[in-house]
Each structure stands twice: as structure tokens, then as C-alpha cells.
Amino acid sequence: MAKKLLMKGNEALAEAAIRAGVKGYFGYPITPQSELLEYMATNLEARGGVFVQAESEVAAINMVYGASGTGKRVMTSTSSPGYSLMQEGISYMACAELPCLLVNVVRGGPGLGTIQPSQGDYFQAVKGGGHGDYKLIVLAPNSVQEMANFTFLGFDLADKYRLPVLILADGALGQMMESVEFPEYNPEEHLVDHSAWATTGRVDGRPQNYITSLHLLSEKMEEINVHLQNKYKEIQKNETRCETINTNDADLLIVSFGLSARSSQKAMELSREEGMKVGLIRPITVFPFPSDIINELSKKAKGVLVVEMNAGQMVEDVRLSIKNDTPVAFYGRMGGMIPQPDDIVNELKKIKD
Amino acid sequence: MNEELIVAGFGGQGVLSMGMTLAYAGMVEDKQVAWIPSYGPEMRGGTANCTVIVSDTNVSSPIISSYDTAIVLNQPSLEKFEPKVKPGGILIYESNNILNPPKRTDIEVYSIPANVEADKIGNKKTMNMIILGAFLSKKPLVSKESIMEGLSKVLPERNHHLLPINEKALKHGMALIN
Amino acid sequence: MSTAEGITCENLDQMETIFERTHILHETPTSYCPGCGHSVVHRLIMEVVEELDILGDTIGVAPVGCSVFAYNFMNVDMQQAAHGRATAVATGIKRVLPNKIVFTYQGDGDLAAIGTAETIHTINRGENIVIIFINNGIYGMTGGQMAPTTLEGDVTSTTPDGRDIFRQGHPIKISEMIAILDGAYYVTRQAVNSAKTVRKCKKALKQAFQNQLDGKGGTNYVEIVSNCPSGWKMTPIASNEKINQEILDYYPLGDLKLPPKEA
Fold first, then answer.
1. pLDDT at A207 > cutoff 50
2. DSSP secondary structure, A156-209, as one string
3. Are strands A210-211 and B47-55 parallel, antiparallel or unpaired?
């Protein structure tokens, strides 16, 4: 049994990344993710990687681009305004099929907003975020333990499919401490051989490798797009992840991800104490989205309540998923406020009849 | 057992470290724990609070709106969190920092002159351990030994020479109520 | 040039080779306009890579600009970078592969406008890379707009009445700015508008790569004043004369920072 540690979510994620064999971390300070950057600054170089504090998030994501282009495991982390700045680079990486791990410890927006937790970057995360048709794999942890677990998973998926994988957290998950156990993980057993495309110099005169996202011929660019879309379909088929709790007998369903799923779980427990048959669906990957299971479970439900820390973003994906008449309601808080379990119970009562 | 507790006061009073010590102690005893800070742009002097959950079962939501116990170290925190103590719950406050004491009668209220007591111990900064000791005498969630193990994790090693005086403060606090 | 009488294809193999195009250039014509300096600089860089025998270690970065397709001409491993971000990309490469030889190939819009922050901070960190800066005073790829280095009075598609320093600012002396950074190891300004300047330019490039190879501290930076016959709406010859007659007065050639003398 691995040793239990009490860590902040940001620190647990950083520690997991080092254990996953990250070779380069490039970042810029922003609350509420700075502990991640600081943990890397303190620990990464002694444990086999390099750390660079970039001059901006723009520079940071481009350092990630360059380092990823050598085939190494690399990452960056930021919070909402910084993540917006990174979009151009992420779009380039999606097109050039460069793997990396991205972390957005979301804070309330729009604008400079607040440093308190939010899920207001959901659309940006799951619809691509930058210009052009592309997707990331987006993992939504809801505990410090998952901040760690999804870091290992994220690197593996990024390497497997050659694309950036995003961990979509929030300020509270980054700042809170819970106990965490790190799984046994030997990076050597997980690393993928990228030598066929990585730019490392033409070792022994091998043919040139180059990395680009520029294809001026429309026919070629369409071909690249078709290839990317096929990859995303493959990811939808293979990598959709979702947790369901008490859904077997449920006639009311909550759909919620990340931190708000914790409040929702408590609300489910409280409402079950009052005799309501409430179940919880928690998307773990928000792209790919677990549409099928939501549609399936909604068939026997009287109503679905989507709970988010935003003005209603994932609720759109839930509505697109449900292909029957089950009504979908929404409860959200914004600007750094977190839905409280009692309030969620009240919302459930509104839709139960 | 499922204890949901808030510690609140000014930055610099040891609010966050008190909560963190308790969370560590819970983990040492194999309980499920969560520690959630409020965090703000001010490093010092602003208001600070943290929620601590110590439970025998999984912590479903770390986000809670009412508390089994509130430990408050200044007036703004008292005003904010007195109404959020569950009926039958506990409110402990640092008496020197409170001008208008709590009024609720459906909860147990304890006034601890922790600043004065810390002076008696000989180190003002042990005020938070005195309060924590007082709380643990009412609700022995974890043992004194676990608290000290937790504190040794929370205190940076360069400050480990302060562990004995903190232990003294903890014991002193435990003896203050009753 | 005299006519080489009596030489036929049959006896070519009996001739002595006195110049050969380096094989580290792709066997293809470049897409640059006739007379453009890019082709010359590409050749010089690849000759340096060949002469220093670093093909297996060299990774280039070319961002947005006319040279965005540089990987189609320079047959070394390359990464195409976003506009302005070449030195950040190069930083990422060099940090995870510190024993490799990394260079960027950037235009004036890229290095001295949109990428100014990356340029300055990369050099301020003293990243041990080679930055090659092609200063031709115009945005060639997008059709001849004003660059940060466009001279006062010069007409471009966005300065139709000529660059007015009170409205469009001054031609930026970015290399002089860079030379004062402690992270800069070698800063020089060269040109490729004559056989003589081409030879000196190659020497400077070779020095810059050699410095990186030697692992000496700091960034090696070579500005190359070049031409843009199409953008300047001039013949190649006239454009090279403009460099001599106008541009080098404002951007004088020579070393702006030399490595400290070894003890």
C-alpha cells in the first residue's frame, strides 16, 4: 500500500507529473495555480526534468510546443486568463499533433474576474478553445486524488493519441488539501517511441523530421482535418469516462462534473435521506462527453438537473445528449460561488413532480 | 464520526496552520480528511478561514454551508460564521479579539482568552494551539500525539525547535475548559 | 564572364569541382522571389552546418514570415513556430535537449514586433542558441506592409505616404537593444548584398554556431540586413544598392557585442 500524503491539489498534480516522468515544465505565475509552478521550481530539476519560468503564458505554451516537438513529456499549467493567452499555441499543437499535458485551474471570469473557483471555462475546454476545428481530451478531476491520477492518465493519453490533454480543475481543487496516494508508475513502461516524427537532429543522417501546422493547399488541409476528426472519433469510442452513483433506481438524475459534482453528491445523499430517488452522473472526460450513458439513464428519469459553477455550459451538451422528452433543468453559481448541497436539494424538489 | 469545522480570523493568527494540523492529525489516524482554505490576494492582515472535515467515511462534499464547530479569532469572523453553526454545535472564540460576544443560545459557546494564555506560556504565536487544545477537550476527534505528528508536518523543519512549546500550549488549552 | 568554349556534357566529369551546392539544402528551387536574400542566407546556414559536421544535432525553428516553409529548403530537422514565438520554441527544444544545436530564423516583424517580448527574454536568459534575424524592412509575406525596421520615409502598403516617425514611430534598433542584455554573448550585424558581405556574413554565422557548439554562455545573435525586391518594388540590383546607399547608414554593419576575451 502506497503512503498517504496530505497535499494541495496543485501540489499533488505536480508531484504526479514528476512521477510520470515529465521532462519539461514551462509556466507563468497566476493564482490559484501558482503552487504547481512553485512545486516544479523546487523539485523538478533535482528529479530529472527542466523548469523554466516563462515571460508570459504565450511564451510558456510555445516552449511546450518546442520541447514536445523533441518527443519529450512536457507540460504547462495556468489559470483562466493565462489559458486564454495559450489558445493560439494549443491550436498549433493540435494541428501539428504534439502531445503534452495542460492544466487549467479555473477561476471566475470573464475578464480578470476573481481568483475564486469556477467552471466558467467549460466551453473553451471542450469545444477546442482556439481557432480551427480541433479538440483536446479533457479530464475533470473532483478530488486531490484525481488531480494526481489524471496526471498519469493524461500523459498516457497524450502520448497515445498525439494531442494535448487538458486537466480542467478549479481554484478550490487546486488549493484544498486531501489525502492522496500515488500509484506505482514506472514511466519507462508507459513512454511511447516518438522518434519517427520528433525533431532531434538528423541522427546518423536519417531523413528530415519537421513539425508544422501550415498546409496552404486546401486539399491537404482538408486531409489533415479529416485525419484529426477521425482521431477524435476514435477517442470518443475508446476514452469516454464517467462515474455513476445510485443511478439504478433513480428517477431524478444530477449531472455534474468536477468540484460541483462533490456538492451534488452530498445533495444526492441528503435528498435520499428524505426519500427522493436521486442518482448522480459525473462525466470524468468532458471531452469526449458521455452522451450515450446520459441518454440511456435519462429514459427512466422524471427529470435531470445539471449543476455547474457557471451560467450553464455543460447543460447544453446534456441537452444534446438526451434524445427523449425528459426535462433538463439547470442550477449554477457564478463568479467564484460554489453550489451548496442544500440549494441543490431545493432545486431537485422543484423538478421532482 | 463526521466533523465539519471552520477556523476563521485574521491572516497571521495561525488560522490556516491550525486547520491543516488538525487535518494531518486526522489522516495520521486513518480518517478521511479535507482542508479547504479561503484564499485571497493579501498575504497578511486580511481575513482568512479554512474548512476542515474529519470523517470516518468518504467526504462527499468538501463544500459545506453549515458547521459542527466554528473557531473564530476576530469579530468579522464571528459575525460571518455564528449563524452558520448547526444547532447543538460548538462555537469557540478568542475573547480578546471579540467586542460583541455571540448571542445564540442553541449552541455551546466557549470564550477562550488564548492571547493572554499564550503570553503566559511565553510565545504569542502558540495562541492557535491553545485554542485547538480547548476545542479538542470538548471534541476529542484525534489524539494529542496525532496533533503533534501533524504539527511536525505543518511546521517547516527550521521551526521544529518550537514543537515543545506548541505541545505545552496544546496541553494548556486542553485544561482551560471545564 | 567568358564563354566556356569546348566544354560539353560528355567531359563534365573531367572537370575539377571548385564549388558545390551543399547537400543539406533540399534539391529543389526555393520559393523566394528572384534576387531575395533569404536563399543566400539559407545556403550559408546549411554550409555552416555541413562544415561544422552538426547535421545530426541541428534543429531549426522558422516562424511565420516568408521563411515559414524553410523546412522545405533547409534539410535539417525543423519546427515551424507561431508568429513571434520562435525563440520560445527554441528555448523549449534547447532546455530538454541541451546538447543539440538549435537556431531560429526570423524576420523583422517576427523578432522585433510581435515577438519582442520573447526575443528579449530569451536572450536575457542567455539561452545558448543561435538567433538569425533577417532585417529587410518590410512584411514580405503579407504583401509589403510596414515593418518595425522600415526606414523613415519609405513607402509601404500601410505607409502610403512614407513612414512618418511621428505617426508610425522610429525604425527600431533592436540589435542595439539586445547587445546591452547580459545574456547576449555575441551580437553582430551583417549583410548579404555583395560577395564581400556574404563572405563576412558566413564567417559570423559560423562563429555563432561554433560558440553554441563550444557551450559558451549566452545567446548568439546574427542580424542580417537583407533585401526585398518585390516588397520594395525594385530590381534585385537596385535593392542591393539601396542597402549600401541608405540602410547601412541607419543600420551600420559590424559587431555590437563580442564575447569576453578569454583569459
1. yes
2. HHHHHHTSEEEEEEEHHHHH-EEEEEPPP--HHHH----TTT--S--GGGPPP-
3. unpaired
Beta-ladder partners of A211: C79
Tell me whether residues C117 and A59 touch, CB distance under 8 A. yes
Q: Which residues contact A143 (CB under 8 A, 6 or more apart)?
A: A173, A178, A262
Residue B43: pLDDT over 70: no
Choose the mutation target among A177, A260, A262, A264 for the interface with B, i.e. most B CBs under 10 Å.
A177
Please indicate whether, in this complex, the C-beta atoms of B41 and A31 are within 8 angstroms of each other. yes
Contact of A134 with chain C, judged by CB distance below 8 Å, is answered with: no
Contacts of A62 in chain C (CB under 8 A): 81-82, 85, 88-89, 92, 118
pLDDT of C8 higher than 70 = no
Chains in touch with C (≥3 Cβ pairs < 8 A): A
Report the chain A residue with the minimal C-alpha distance to residue C101.
Answer: A201
- Whether the per-residue pLDDT at B133 is higher than 60: the answer is yes
Give pTM, 2 decimals.
0.94
Write the pLDDT tens digit of every residue in A304-324: 999 999 999 999 999 999 999
For chain A, list the contacting chains (3+ Cβ pairs, <8 Å). B, C
Q: Where are the alpha helices (DSSP H) in chain A?
A: 9-19, 34-43, 57-68, 80-85, 87-96, 122-126, 144-161, 171-175, 187-190, 218-239, 258-273, 291-298, 314-321, 341-351
A115/B41 Cβ within 8 A = yes
Pick from A15-19, A91-95, A330-334, C62-66: least confident: C62-66
User: Is residue C129 situated within a structural domain?
Assistant: yes
Residue C262 counted as domain residue: no
Instruction: For chain B, list the domains and their CATH numbers.
Output: 2-174 (3.40.920.10)
Task: Quote the DSSP letter at residue B95.
Answer: G
Q: Is C26 a member of any domain?
A: no
Q: pLDDT tens across B71-89, in order?
A: 999 999 999 999 999 999 9
**Rg of the Cα trace of chain A?**
20
| DSSP single-letter state for residue C102 | E
Q: Across the interface, do B35 and A269 touch by the CB < 8 Å criterion? A: no
A200 and C77 in contact by Cβ < 8 A? yes
Residue range A178-197: average pLDDT?
97
Contact A202 C58 (CB under 8 A): yes
Contact C78 A213 (CB under 8 A): no
pLDDT, position C1: 41
pLDDT > 60? residue B177: yes
Domain that holds residue C220: 31-257
The residue assigned the cell 486542553 is: B174
Which amino acid does the sequence have at A83?
Y
Q: Which domains does chain A have, with CATH numbers?
A: 4-239 (3.40.50.970), 243-351 (3.40.50.920)
* Domain of residue C103, CATH code: 3.40.50.970
Task: Quickly state the pLDDT bin for C217 (edges 50, 70, 90).
Answer: confident
Q: Mutate one of C78, C93, C94, C106 to test the A interface: name it (highest A CB count within 10 A).
A: C93
A23 reaches C (C-beta below 8 A): yes
Asked if C151 reaches chain A (Cβ–Cβ under 8 Å), the answer is no
For residue A218, the model assigns a pLDDT of: 96
**Cis upstream peptide for A110 (omega within 30°):** yes
Query: What pLDDT score was predicted for residue B44?
Result: 56
Please count the structural domains in chain C.
1
C204 inside domain:
yes
Do the Cβ atoms of C251 and C262 come closer than 8 Å?
no
B-interface mutation test, from A79, A105, A107, A178, most B Cβ less than 10 A away = A178
Written as nine digits, the cell of A336 is 467564484
Helix (H), strand (E) at residue B24? helix B15-28
**Does the pLDDT of residue C2 top 50, yes or no?**
no
Q: Do A6 and B63 touch (CB under 8 A)?
A: no
Q: What is the pLDDT of residue A2?
A: 67
